[in-house]
Amino acid sequence: MSGRLTRTRLLAATTVALAALSVTACGGTDASAVRNEGPATSSTPGSPTASHSPTASASTSPTARPTTQPPATSATTRAPEKPATGKVGGGESGGGESGGGESGGGESRNPQCGAGTTRTIATPVARPLNHLLITVTNTGKKNCDLLGYPYARFGEAQAVPPVDESTHPQAVVTLAPGESGYAGVRLSAADGSGTHGYTTKSLTVGFRNGTAANPSLAGKGVYVDSSLRVTYWQQNMGDALN
Fold it and tell me: Cα dist. 94→150, 206, 210 in Å?
């Protein structure tokens, strides 16, 4: 009995040992298989393999758009500008003047009258005493504006006489072809109160456009003194002598 029991126990122990070795052998084989397989391929977004996949790039990349912009309109391009039409007060404006000062009132719309398109005559008058009438006639084919007053230089005088401001006309004196404009000249004081008087046979009449005429003084000439004055150009003779 004891011998049989001993063999039975040895057989059982051997069986248990063989089973343990079998389990150990199987576990070692599985672990080896896991270690030798290397990193698994993953298609999960965000993994290195998925991020470099051509398919993934095509699906996640935004649609390409052209970056070239149309050329901008040049900043130097301008619309045609209208010519300036500024007013000139008391100065020349290339054939016309406007505003106050010596322009003779109102606004000039025609070329200025000058020596080239007019005839100038100087005539002594009986009334008022010691006065001279200057007459300018338009000999051209177009209207012209007689602006300001005559720059009347008698003899070798260094200055022209002042103008009587009370004679300023209300409108520009415009001369049609063949028409005349007038200015009066007070040569000397009727009561003899003038000073530095002298007699001259020479007269130069200057116009606002820079030209000048030299009307003759008949006879022995005229006597002038410190009371010498001229009027603005007038449309009629009566205003020039009054």
Answer: 18, 16, 11
Q: Are 138 and 175 in contact (CB under 8 A)?
A: yes
- Which domains are delineated in the chain? 115-241 (2.60.40)
Please tell me the predicted confidence (pLDDT) of residue 8. Answer: 54
Confidence at residue 14, expressed as pLDDT on a 0 to 100 scale: 54
Confidence of residue 62 (pLDDT cuts 50, 70, 90): very low
Q: Where are the strands (E) in the chain, listed by range?
A: 118-125, 131-138, 144-146, 151-154, 173-175, 180-186, 198-200, 203-206, 212-213, 222-224, 229-230
Q: Which of 186, 185, 172, 184 is nearest to 113 (CA)?
A: 172
* Tokens standing for residue 129: 């005493």
Rounded Cα gap, residues 104 and 97, in angstroms: 9
Report which listed range, 25-29, 218-222, 235-239, is most confident. Answer: 235-239
Residue whose structure tokens are 């100065």: 91
Q: What 3 state SS string does 57-91 have?
A: HHHHCCCCCCCCCCCCCCCCCCCCCCCCCCCCCCC
CA–CA dist 22, 120 (Å, integer)? 148
How many residues are listed for the chain in this entry? 242
Contact 194, 225 (CB under 8 A): yes
CB 152 within 8 A of CB 161: yes
Q: Supply 151's token pair.
A: 């720059």
pLDDT (0 to 100) of residue 219: 86
Place 88 in a pLDDT band, splitting at 50, 70 and 90: very low
